[in-house]
Design a protein that fits this description.
39% of the residues lie in helices and 24% in strands. With 260 residues, the chain is α/β, with parallel strands linked by helices. It has 2 domains: 123 residues, Periplasmic binding protein-like II (D-Maltodextrin-Binding Protein, domain 2); 102 residues, Periplasmic binding protein-like II (D-Maltodextrin-Binding Protein, domain 2, 3-Layer(aba) Sandwich), CATH 3.40.190.10. Strands 1, 2, 3, 4, 5, 6, 7, 8 and 9 form a 9-stranded mixed sheet that branches. It is elongated, with a radius of gyration of 25 Å. 38% of the residues are buried.
Amino acid sequence: MIRYSRLNGVIGAALLLAGCGMNGPPTVAAKSEITVAAAANLIDVFGRIGPEFEAETGIHPVFSFASTAQLTQQIENSAPFDVFSAADSEHIAKLEREKLLAPGTRALYALGVLAMWIPPGSKVQVSRLSDLDSPGVRVIAVANPELAPYGKATIDLLQSRPGWAKVKPKIVYAEDISMAKQYGKSNNADVVFTAYSLVLHESGQVIPLPASGVEQEMAVLAKSPRQSDARRLEEFLLRGKGRQILTQFGYRTGPTANSQ
């Protein structure tokens, strides 16, 4: 009888717990999430945009930062991204030709500005491009032009100058512009060419080069299973609060345009 009573008690407790589970508060649904392949120049600005977008939409963006060329290759190899925010238009156009973009989602979202940054630890006196010819400037950090659009814009700019022959031996190449910035922060470069958005709030001397506008395009990926949520991020950047934040970080956001 004692054993029987204990068994009844166990069964009763189990039923009570089961009843609480059935009749208690509903399970909280998993938060919507999208994965965003983002060019390295967007690290700082997307750090601000991500929380603002999530607060407005309830969609959690997970960012993967790298050079535009590296991200393009990952997408071609079926990386599970929902959105691609590139640092140029050429790689987006390439993916469009390969039918890897959702139709109607390719758009220009910002014009990036190239900047010349003299880190606070640098001893050189540089205020214009011609000062790079000075013997005192020993190391100039630039993103790999074969991988990073800002690196290509830098080399195109420097090659157009008469002093290119003197400047070329001083250049060290980083994987992307974020890494180029690290060369300056670690006192391994006298001058750094990077995105204005990455050094806008840094100490040292920041010299924007406005004539060097870099067209940055984005698109939703054709294989994304969350295209509706992905399009909401694009809308946030093109016409929502994200556009204002881009401007605060030094990007130009003229009239939005679909580039198809």
